[in-house]
Structure formats: C-alpha cells, structure tokens
Amino acid sequence: MAFPKMTRRTALAGASALGAATIWRPREALATKQLTVVLESEVVIFDPHFTTAAITRTFGYHIWDTLFAMDGKGQIRPQMVEAYEASPDKLTWTFTLRDELKWHDGAPVTAAECVASINRWSPRDALGRMLRAATASMAAPNDKTFTIALKEPFPLMLAALGKANAPLPVMMPMRFASTPGDQRLMAMPVGSGPFRFRADLWKSGNSMVIEKNPDYVPRKEPADFLAGGRNVKFDRVELKVMPDQMTGASALIKGEIDYMQYLPFDSLSLLRRARDVKLLGIGGIHQFQGNFRLNHEAPPFNDPAVRRVLWKLADQSSILSAIGIPEEFRSPQCSSFWMCDAPLSTTAGSDVAKLDIEAAKAALKATSYAGQPVIILEVAGSISQTAAQVLAQNMKNAGFTVDEQTMDWGTVLARRAKKDGWSMFSVYSNGTDMISPLSHFYIASTCADFPGWSCDTRIPDLLKAFTQAEDDAGRRRVAEQIQTIAYELTPAVMWGQFTIPAGYRADLRNLPQSSYPMFWEVDR
After folding, report:
1. Terminal-to-terminal C-alpha distance of the chain
2. Which of 52, 102, 492, 499 is the most buried if burial means most Cβ atoms within 10 Å?
3. Are residues 174 and 116 in contact, defined by beta-carbon separation less than 8 angstroms?
C-alpha cells in the first residue's frame, strides 16, 4: 500500500554527510559514478515478504530478484527462470533457473532456495495462498530445477510467481527463506538482484547506499517495466531521506539530487519552468487509486444501506480539483475497481456512483442511520486529508454527523487495527496493486481479518473462479461479477485515479517510464 502522506513540513536541518562519506569512501571510489535520489520515504523494513509497504517493494526490486516479472503490457515474463513447462494435464510445472545466478555473498542460487522462498512468501499473499491451496507438493530434484505438483489446475501460476504488487515473491538465500514468514527479517539483506546494500554506509534518518552488483548477469532481452535485462549504468545509488517535499523540489532544481519520486503539486509550475528538470507522469496501471476504506464492524457503516449512500457523495472531479491535481495527471471519473485504462476495466454496477446530494439525503433517511458520528481518520497535511475533507462536507450536507480527527499515518495504522473508534479513513494505492480482484486490498481480503472487515460470501468462490478461468475473456467476465457485488457491499469508495509525477534531471537518459522507481538502464 502506498504511504498516503504528502507533507509540507519544514525539513529538519540535515547533518553534513559529505565529510562522513569521505571518511568511509576508499580512495579508489572517489570517481564513483553516483545517482542521488529521494524516494517516498525512508526504507525501514527490508523484508519484501513481510509487508505491503510500497517503499519496501521499491527497495526489494533492486536488491532481490523474482522468478518471473511483469512487462509494460501487464504480461508475465521469465526473470530468474530460463525455461518452464506444464504437463498436458496442467498439474505438474517444471522450472529451470538461469545460469550464473548468484547471491550477493557469491554463493550460487539453488532451486531448493526457490522452493523455500515460495513457501515463506505464499501464506502472506492472497494470490500466494490460492497457489498454496492448489499445490500438492514442491520439490527440487537438482540445483537448477524445481517442480510444483498441483491438486487441480491453477492457470494463474505465472501471475502468482511474477506478481508486481507487494508482498513480493522474491527469492532469498536459505538462511532467510527458512525464517517463518510471520517473523520479520532483521538481518542485513542479501539478494541476487542488480544492486547490493552497503550496510557500512547506512545512516538511519539520513541516507542509505545501494551499489552495482558486479556478479549480476542481466537477461538478454531489452528492459520492459520489471521484465527483461536490468543493466546497471551507475556504480552507486544514494537514497536520501528528505521529509519535506518542497525542500526536495528545490534540491532537484539546484541539481543537488537527480530524481524525486513524488513532487508536490503546488511546485509543478516552478518545476516546469526549470530548464534542467523533466517531469514524469504515467497513465493506466502506473497511476494511483484513491479510496475511502469503511469500517463494516461499527455503526453506522455496519448497515450496507448507509454505506451505499456514499456513492452519491464522493465526487472524484471535485476531490482531485481540491487536491490541486492538474487534468493531465488524472483520469476522468473512474468507476472501475480494477483501474481505468487497464486490462480488467469495467463499469459493471457503477450506475449508483453519481454525485447527487438531494438523492443522498433521501436515501439516508430511508436507512437505520440515527445521527451516529462518522469518525474520519485523516493524515495531517496529506492529499488524502484533502480528499476526506471534500467528502466530509458533502456528507454533512446530506445529513451525516461527521467527526474529522487529524493524526499521523502511524496513528491511523494503530487506530484502524481496532474494530471500534473509527468509521473510515482515506488512502491511495499503486495501480498495480488494484488492477485485479486477487490483489485489490479491499476485495481480495473479503471475509478476512483485514482492517475494515468487509465480507460477502459470494466473493471467495468468484475469486477461485477467476483463478481457474482459462483465458482473459473468462477472467473479465468474473471480474465484472465481483465488481457488481462490490458496489453493493461497498468495502471502499473510490475518490479518484491520478498520477503523482516524479521529477528528474534533464541530463539523465533512459530512465524507465514508470511510477515504480527503477535505477537500472538509466544513464547520464
């Protein structure tokens, strides 16, 4: 899940890192070719199996590697795997690893470690759990080959092993992969990806360094989103911690940093005028989806009729305009749970989603609502808070009693874990997390112990049917059925699809055009 905060707080004065860096840097590294970047937040969790945090996913793709990977069209391609085949009855899959795969400590990657990694990751992921349920056994007959024997066909095998949303199915050395998945890895990360982590250069709260992995052998195919060759052109990438976005934007203009993942919207006009800065804003699956997540366990949203009133009050155009998102960085009113301009886009069930305050008033009066306060958890200074404030005013106009409570994101996480004391919170997530019923946070977790506790007993069977569909057309039909139910259930109400543009220095070449920060292929 993307961290929902876009603050304008004054940055703390940064400690001078230059002298310290010089102390650590060997003499031969003084001419190191370095890229300096500012990401959405500091990396605090290194375990890609353990969390859905987007920053850990970004870090994970640079340090670790996956068996398969998604290309720019949403197709799954081999990554660590050289060859694979399924038996005629689709019950036995055989995978052969590429040559020259090595962990950062120099040890070879083995098939047994891949089996252990899948076993660690799968219980923590909705699609992974479905794969696990369909699996009879996994085995590694030799160091290069492993097999998965199924109890029933599982057409989404490659989609599971190459999924682009967190938690990531990365491969780990046995000493990590044998750690139970519900125990977070605390050791310094050792992967097989194109970069390796420099623990000796890590300054918590200030910066961390990843450097080119000299033993990494890229695939021969051209890079395409997360798939293909990952050719690293910089010796080192420094990840700077810069909490204040306006300070980051200024640093980008001055050339003090080379790339900033999330630009503040109120600095875009200034950045456009900067001769040496370019903006990056991508559509479709590279956009974000904003949602109001509802608490189904506590009044008033334990009544589905009260929940459905919100579809008449959440106007995406008004919300995105209030946030200040330019039209070029947003989609028109998007009614698809699975994102617009995406493979499963649909309008099924969405006829109820239309701003109409008077109709909302009448609908609310016909429900069980008795004036209970709707407690909205809002992250101070964030675009998600602005979204919540627009909805809150419409709710008041329709007859709701609204209690807006401002806090930081950490407090929201703590509050939302309890089944009382809150009614809704606002958040936004990467499109790659939301493009499928199997990964959409509020659909895939139906009838599970997931904050919000939405449940419709029809959805689990439809999710299974989705995994068993033989082709894209069959999956689209099932996705439409699920969305129709979701509009009735109202696990969340969408508040918009949009891009938060990244910025980079104009002298950078071949920067992957993606909302995922990727620092292979890019050069200067």
Report:
1. 31
2. 492
3. yes
Neighbour order of strands in the sheet with 145-150? 81-86, 92-97, 145-150, 135-139
Residue type, 507: D
373-379 and 401-407 strand pairing: parallel
Evaluate whether 37 touches 238 at the Cβ level (below 8 Å). Answer: yes
Closest by CA to 366, choosing from 312, 297, 296, is 312
Three-state secondary structure along 144-185?
Answer: CEEEEEECCCCCCHHHHHCCCCCCCCECCCHHHHCCCCCCCC
- Structure pTM? 0.84
Tallying the residues shown for the chain, one arrives at 524
d(CA 411, CA 382) in angstroms, rounded, equals: 14
504 and 266 in contact (C-beta within 8 Å)? no
Q: Which of 189-203, 281-295, 302-316 has the lowest mean pLDDT?
A: 281-295
DSSP state of 407: E
Q: Which amino acid is at 104?
A: H
**Which one-letter DSSP state was computed for residue 328?**
G
Task: Tell me the per-residue pLDDT of 9-22, one tens digit each, with 9 for 90 and over.
Answer: 333 233 333 233 33
pLDDT tens digits, residue range 495-517?
999 999 999 999 999 999 888 99
